[in-house]
Design a protein that fits this description.
By secondary structure, the protein is α/β, with parallel strands linked by helices. It is built from ten helices and eight strands.
């Protein structure tokens, strides 16, 4: 496809760069099982991957959501480094992208403290120029606010940026902000689910990004 030059990549974090799927599922079950014994399965937790914690817990009981978020963060933090792991090729590809001069940012619905823990686990602190967490905005994805804030901090135009994520919030958020979008086929929700939202690209491996930015060099 013919596009403007891609100068910046905005990444969702959980489920895109860091495989926190098992961590998230176990944490939700840890919080909810004592309250609702036997009611929720692992599969029931999958829709909670992507939205903010308050949004997810509020679908069960808005009055208890704040307390559940507190409990979630305590257990999640304790088990984070044990259960989270890098998706294949993430750090090596990020290094290669930076060598090409591509600007890198993270736009997540997570709180900054939890997000920073994951960034440190991957060892990519020096590669990421801008981090936008839920603490930085009033409205999280799919609202365009966090993506537009990342663009402002990077001093990049919409047509030069690609938003990459594993959930509908990332694709729709990118579209709402007027940037190109890419889904990741390793999303727990699946490639078919993401294709419903018509991303501009579908990544089957992190290194596919090198082909995308490489194509424009030869255009």
């Amino acid at each position: 496809m013919t596009t403007k030059e891609i100068k910046g990549l905005l990444f969702d974090f959980d489920g895109t760069l860091l495989d926190t799927n098992e961590l998230i599922i176990q944490t939700f079950l840890h919080v909810l099982e004592p309250e609702f014994p036997g009611k929720f399965t692992r599969e029931d937790m999958i829709p909670f991957i992507g939205p903010s914690l308050m949004e997810s817990f509020s679908t069960i009981d808005p009055n208890r959501a704040e307390e559940w978020v507190r409990q979630y963060r305590i257990w999640n933090d304790k088990h984070h480094d044990e259960l989270a792991k890098e998706f294949d090729g993430v750090t090596s590809t990020l290094y290669a992208l930076r060598e090409k001069g591509i600007r890198l940012a993270i736009v997540s619905t997570k709180a900054l403290e939890s997000l920073s823990k994951g960034i440190r686990l991957l060892g990519i602190e020096d590669l990421i120029e801008v981090v936008v967490s839920m603490d930085d905005v009033k409205n999280v994805k799919p609202d365009p606010e966090p993506i537009l804030l990342a663009l402002k901090k990077l001093h990049l135009e919409k047509e030069n940026v690609l938003m990459i994520g594993d959930n509908s919030h990332d694709i729709i958020g990118g579209q709402n902000a007027g940037v190109k979008t890419a889904g990741v086929a390793w999303s727990l929700k699946g490639e078919e689910f993401l294709m419903q939202f018509k991303p501009d690209y579908m990544l089957h491996h992190m290194s596919d990004l090198l082909l995308i930015v490489g194509d424009q060099e030869n255009a």
